[in-house]
Specification:
about 280 residues; disordered N terminus; single chain; five-stranded mixed beta sheet; alpha/beta; 10 helices
Length: about 280
């Protein structure tokens, strides 16, 4: 009796994908149907590389389609990358500002040579109910039981010092770069989330709430929300700010996206590829 090799087992496991005729346009149309929201013309949720007619061998979801993620997707046989954030260094993925830049040119060359599709899923992933990014992060942190009245942004957690709360977040996200504004010994239980880079307007509005003592955010301009919190503390108000980084604050939402896609796409393999926290501390 011949020994069954691992390669043979791999072929058997993915035999259902071998006859796939799924195209990029099919994937996008199914996503639009499942989102269930009328698709407007003004959105960043568009193709950044490739076109609707490219046949798909596999799908990768990621927070950010940097070159490392693209190479890992290619190595895994996944030629469609669904990214949450921009591919070309600005929110609208305009190529003109860096059209002669060798870094951008090299990335475009890689995508073209490997016939890869990059499609952004940002606006409508946030507009879903529940918000896809927040749903993924809540699951990662196991904070569902602390949600106030079903909110995905307001939480009543067991009282903890700001130091211990920050340490918990550091462990959950596996990062060394969390930054905190506030009294490390003060205890907090009323927490609000403003993930990603929502801007100081949204962050300060959350802090203005009487039922929010501390907020967890992705990133901010340091002269805006940071200084608002410092001034509030100087006035004797119980407020705090925890900055966990944009990638850390949203990446789990794209891991959830891979699971969500599997509920209505079964012709090709689907895999989450983390972009990871880009920062480190000395």
């Amino acid at each position: 009796m011949k020994v069954i090799t691992s390669a043979f087992l791999y072929i058997i496991a993915f035999s259902s994908f071998s006859q796939a005729t799924l195209k990029a346009g099919d994937v996008v149309e199914r996503i639009k149907k499942e989102v269930g929201i009328e698709w407007g013309d003004e959105t960043v949720d568009t193709y950044k590389s490739g076109d609707p007619n490219i046949k798909i061998t596999g799908i990768a979801t990621t927070f950010l389609a940097n070159l490392d993620v693209l190479k890992r997707a290619k190595a895994s046989g996944l030629n469609m990358v669904i990214t949450h954030e921009p591919t070309f260094y600005n929110h609208f993925d305009h190529l003109e500002p860096w059209q002669d830049d060798p870094v951008q040119q090299e990335k475009l060359k890689f995508l073209k040579e490997n016939n890869m599709v990059v499609w952004r899923f940002h606006d409508y992933w946030h507009r879903m109910a529940p918000d896809g990014i927040y749903k993924g992060v809540i699951d990662k942190m196991n904070w569902g039981e602390y949600a106030k009245n079903g909110s995905d942004r307001l939480f009543e957690i067991p009282e903890a010092s700001l130091m211990n709360l920050a340490k918990d977040l550091k462990q959950i996200f596996g990062t060394e770069t969390i930054r905190v504004v506030g009294d490390s010994t003060a205890n907090f239980s009323k927490v609000g989330w403003v993930l990603g880079a929502a801007g100081s307007n949204a962050q300060i509005k959350m802090l203005q709430r009487n039922d929010v003592e501390a907020i967890i955010i992705g990133e901010t301009h340091e002269w805006e929300t940071v200084e608002y919190v410092r001034d509030a503390i100087s006035q004797g108000r119980k407020k705090a700010l925890i900055i966990i980084g944009h990638a850390n604050s949203e990446e789990a939402g794209m891991a959830y996206c891979a699971d969500w896609l599997k509920t209505f796409i079964n012709e090709v393999p689907i895999e989450f590829i983390p972009a990871g926290d880009p920062f480190w501390g000395p």
